[in-house]
Amino acid sequence: MLSLLIGGFLRLNQIPAVQADKLCKSFTDGNLVSSVLEDISFEIRQGEIVSILGQSGCGKSTLLNILGGFERPDSGSIRIAGAPVERPTRKCVMLFQDYGLLPWRNVLANVELGLEPLKELGAKERRERAEAYVKLVGLQDWGRSFPHQLSGGMQQRVALARALAMQPELLLMDEPFAALDTFTRYALQDELLKLQRKERVTVVLVTHDIDEAVYLSDRVFIMQSRPGRIHKQIRIESAKPRDRGHRDFQHFRKQILEAFRLSGAEPTEEFAI
Questions:
Q1: Per-residue b/e over 226-251, b at no fewer than 16 CB within 10 Å?
Q2: What residues does each domain of the chain span?
Q3: Does pTM top 0.85 for this prediction?
């Protein structure tokens, strides 16, 4: 009996956090059909951070929306923790660049927003969970403040606290730090790594910043355009946190740049390289 239980646990533990199988997606503009994604297949393990890099128009954000259930593929399938994705669910939360905070709600109330549909949580439990996650991102002294009273980095911390308070299995991030200055971006990258380890959440990140991808990721997916495909996957085999000046960091950075050249898509000024 014990061996059966252990075997069942191991099999459960082996279920990928994300499974994409032969995803295809096209959009129609009048009589013109444009293929955005073609034959996208991959698996992401539980607790991984995976970055998606590619030029504008290669389908990165469309792929993220399909993972989150906000768009349906024309063909192929997507599974989160073994369950098919047919619509947005609480298992998966999207974090955007523009924070999405309600200006008339203070920090705690913004974090509580995602918890309000949960019937099993009363008002007291919602507030306690919101306070715990606000503290987790280091904003416990700003709980009564409103978004306009916060810096951009602090607003992104609130958005991150709100996402994590929902305790998702998968966190999708669409260029969440792109609008921030360099030092704030670095600080939030470190914060993300700390929180991701603590919460054991799987992260898929769309970014144009090659250094950010190398710093954060366990793997980097490099996409090519027209139609969008995954040209190459690069595993970043280096302990975290990483030293941006170390030769290993520069080695992986050069690998990514070379992969872009081989894909026929040279990095342009849109990339932070």
A1: ebbbbbbebebebeeebeeeeeebee
A2: 17-91+168-273, 102-166
A3: yes
